[in-house]
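Narrative of activities, Objective 1.

The group set out to show that a structural description can be obtained from nothing but a protein's sequence at a throughput compatible with the screening campaign. Below is one input-output pair from the validation batch, recorded exactly as produced.
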Amino acid sequence: MTMVNVHEAKTHFSRLLSRVAGGEEIVIAKAGKPVARLLPLIGKTQKREPGSAKGRITLKKGFAEPLSSLLADEFEK
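Output recorded for this entry:
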């Protein structure tokens, strides 16, 4: 884990991102106190395929019916 100050992070942001992409964790500090952490994303995101859950989800009867006034009032709070 490497700690850099805000000025250095702003100046060398692209380089820091490259290091993070390589698996390094970087902490950004302000006035010597850690305030943020740059971490690599874990795993690869999968491309979304519309309709891939077809047939796996069922909605109960009345799902699309209007809410009762009591329940609707709770959402409005």
